[in-house]
Amino acid sequence: MKRFVAKGIAALLALAPVPATAGQGSAWDYTFTGIDGQEVPLRQFAGKVVLVVNTASQCGFTPQYEGLQALWQTYRDRGLVVIGVPSNDFGGQEPGSKEEIKTFCETTFHVDFPLMDKAVVSGGAAHPFYQWAASQVGAVGVPRWNFHKFLITPDGQIADWYSSLTKPQDPKVAAAIEALLPQVRR
């Protein structure tokens, strides 16, 4: 009987989410490299609502940049930060250099929200933030294509995630952001 219970506990532990790296188990434990080459520790956004989106310049969802910019303009003064993470993971749709990506985003969609350098967002080689996010939401919530979105609470936890099909202007995205904004520290 004891062996059966021990095997059951071991099986349950194997299914439990495990943070990808040591830390406090929040988004604030991770750092990206900005598109300008500077380190961008996510902890600088602690106390704010953050929408992290893996992006691509040659994708059918690329027009979502417009909606992301609109969210940023609407809510940034109230505590929302939109972060774009270019990735070439899906369909090779972000082949450009960081300079090309930045120029494309600024000139085509007038993006002025923070853009990161290109990163891997899926699989075993994913950026540590994306590994952590996968451990938090499970296989169903990981990016399967460009413009997957993670909504992060002011205390660094994942509030929700949205597939590529969910546009930034979707009312459920705005409602989730609105619900979190009262928690923003001023």
Automatic annotation (TrEMBL):
GO biological process, one term: cellular response to oxidative stress
Keyword Protein biosynthesis among UniProt keywords: no
Keywords: Oxidoreductase, Peroxidase, Signal
Active site residues per record: C59
InterPro entries, A to Z: Glutathione_peroxidase, GPX_AS, Thioredoxin-like_sf, Thioredoxin_domain
Residue ranges constituting the Thioredoxin domain according to the UniProt record: 21-182
Entry-linked SUPFAM superfamilies: Thioredoxin-like
Keyword Oxidoreductase on entry: yes
A molecular-function term among this protein's GO annotations: peroxidase activity
Signal peptide start-end: 1-22
Highest rank taxon of the organism: Bacteria
Family (UniProt): Belongs to the glutathione peroxidase family.
Protein name according to UniProt: Glutathione peroxidase
Organism, scientific name: Novispirillum itersonii
